[in-house]
Amino acid sequence: MSYITFSTSSYPEAERLEASLDIYAAMANIDVSLPRGRAPDIETRIRLLPGVSIALIQCSPIIVNRRSRQLQDGNDDFALLLNPAGNAPWRSQLAGVGEVECGPGAGCFSFNDRPGTIEFHGNRTYMLNICFSRALLGPLVGDLERASKTPHLSRETFAHLARCAIDLVKEPDTDSTEILADTNRLLDLAALSVGAPRDIEITARHRGLKQARLRAVKADLRISAWHGDTSLSWLAKRHGVSPGYIRAMFEQEGQSFTDYVLGLRLERVFQCLSSAAHAHKKVADIVYDAGFNNPSWFYRAFRRRFGLTPGEVRELGSTQQPAGEPV
Questions:
Q1: Which residues make Cβ contacts (< 8 Å) with residue 203, sequence separation at least 6?
Q2: Using an 8 Å Cβ cutoff, are 221 and 260 in contact?
Q3: Cα separations (Å) of 125 from 54, 66, 82, 191, 197?
Q4: Residue 85's pLDDT band (cuts 50, 70, 90)
Q5: For site-directed labelling of 235, which of 8, 50, 75, 127 has its Cα 20 to 30 A away?
Q6: pTM here?
Q7: pLDDT digits over 244-292, tens only?
């Protein structure tokens, strides 16, 4: 499971184009050209997995070509091309598919066994390129090559697909078990994004999409759980699902939504009480800032969770500070 990074900033300006040509010819068998007199500015992170490759690219204006002579490498992967960030679109032109322009939040699929061109015109344009072997994705999606098939990816799954792929490329050292789980989730989301047959869709929604949504909801709560206006209704609207759907996701994991939020808030109070950075704050203020508005109920819940009172946690935290550190 290789992890590769490439940055033109590692090379003198005069050598950046040649370095880009060499690296992309070796990795993807493509040509890179750019406006005359301008050195490329490219940052790339790549994760290579069995049957899947993921590349997150940030670049200045360039044109990428895969021509007939380069198709002889035998690469017939399906490629999902996403524009995950920024404000600049890119445009692809692929034989049998036509021209597709994708702004941020949009994507399309492509075929590596056809000639094509991708044009990046913005000063900082992003692309997330997810390639699947036909043996891996093909059985899940039916006939992607039929003429009536739209090349655009589903908006419903876009954010989850992008987040899952970015999670796989952002860190070089990731637990192999976690990578396998994320790869399976990525495959389900890819199938839904291009339009899977009904039986595959049902399984992928229950498995990959549900898990991706649950992860997104939990990530949101880790940021917003202590805000007073965080509610189940607000969260459901933000993620485009019903409150009952979110409740069911947590219950199927053996935990209620309310208990999960309570756990986050209690952990936040515990961490603040244990930290010298919050030693000047009153316990009541820390409790309120964590989203609690009923002190009596909070104290009972805190003691059940940790077997200690807030005052005892603060006292233990102060005795564990290194010598010389203010408490």
A1: 188
A2: yes
A3: 17, 19, 11, 26, 33
A4: very high
A5: 127
A6: 0.72
A7: 989 988 998 889 999 999 999 999 999 999 988 888 999 999 999 998 9
Cα 219 to Cα 80, 169, 212, 305, distances in angstroms = 25, 18, 11, 22
Q: Looking at 51-197, list the stretches that DSSP marks H as alpha helix, in order from N- to C-terminal side.
A: 134-141, 155-170, 176-194
Letter string b/e over residues 90-120, b meaning 16 or more CB atoms within 10 A of that residue's CB? bebebeebeebebeeebbbbbbbeebbbbbb
3-state secondary structure string across 212-257: HHHHHHHHHHHHHCCCCCCCHHHHHHHHCCCHHHHHHHHHCCCCCH
3-state SS class at 287: helix
- Sketch out the chain's domains with CATH numbers: 3-224 (2.60.120.10), 226-327 (1.10.10.60)
> What are 109-138's pLDDT values in tens digits?
999 999 999 999 888 999 999 999 988 898
Cβ atoms of residues 39 and 8 within 8 Å: yes
In this predicted structure, the answer to whether residue 295 has a pLDDT above a threshold of 70 is yes
Residue whose tokens read 């010819």: 25
- Residue 325's pLDDT is what? 42
